[in-house]
Amino acid sequence: MPEDSAIPSGPRVEWLGRRRYQPILEAMKAFTDARDHGTPDACWLLEHEPVFTQGQAGRAEHILMPGDIPVVQVDRGGQVTYHGPGQLMVYTLIDIRRRGLGVRQLVSLLEDTTVAALAHWDIEAAPRQDAPGVYVAGEKIASLGLRVRRGCAYHGLALNVDMDLAPFQRINPCGYAGMPVTQIRDQIGGAVSLDAVSDIVQRKLLERLQLAGSE
pLDDT digit string (tens) for 129-172? Predict the structure, then answer.
């Protein structure tokens, strides 16, 4: 492989705290538009203020009662979902062309990362072929959405940790009416910190990206 196409060992990871959605969306777009072949990949970990995000193919009928929670149209795939405090966002700004990954491979990598992270708390989880994301006994615990521009991916993963799940009742999550949702707190029957989950997810993600880059 030519020297200038070497794959970096892992993305630069940043914890951004609690942020409003729109500025982060614009920052992801700006990062992707400005990067070149030598720009290191990035992983942004954060939580959002309450927001519903509607994917490119999103249908209005899946937003039932938004109420006081804003709805933002976004450029990722998929339908509507909810983000809010206590949910870990993992934004993967990755040059998939440089790493030799396809979109489906990155989705699978993120799903596998989530399953491995949940196993740390002895939570048995798995993806579904018919509905992207990660599930525990039929209940959705994590959602996925990506956009690829010029061979570079952004958006990523949302993992329910310790949050108010009630806003999911105002929508058909990811376009599925009555889709049950769950979170780590409910699965382990006790409190769990976003920091602890962030640390585990970050470690599992970096392990898998390094393995993918070495194949």
Answer: 888 899 999 999 999 999 999 999 999 999 999 999 999 999 99
Measured between alpha carbons, how far is residue 101 from residues 76, 98, 106, 152, 215 in Å?
18, 8, 7, 10, 10
Dist. CA 204–CA 99, nearest whole Å: 17
Q: Are 136 and 142 in contact (CB under 8 A)?
A: no
Contact call for residues 91 and 43 (beta carbons, < 8 A)? yes
In sequence order, which residues have a C-beta less than 8 Å from that of residue 166 and are 6 or more positions away?
none
Residues assigned a catalytic role: 174
Looking at residue 153, its amino acid is A
What are the helix (H) ranges across 35-161? 96-99, 103-119
94, 11 Cβ separation under 8 angstroms: yes
pLDDT exceeds 60 at position 173: yes
Token representation of residue 5: 């196409």
Question: Taking the CB of residue 32, how many other CB atoms lie within 10 A of it?
Answer: 21
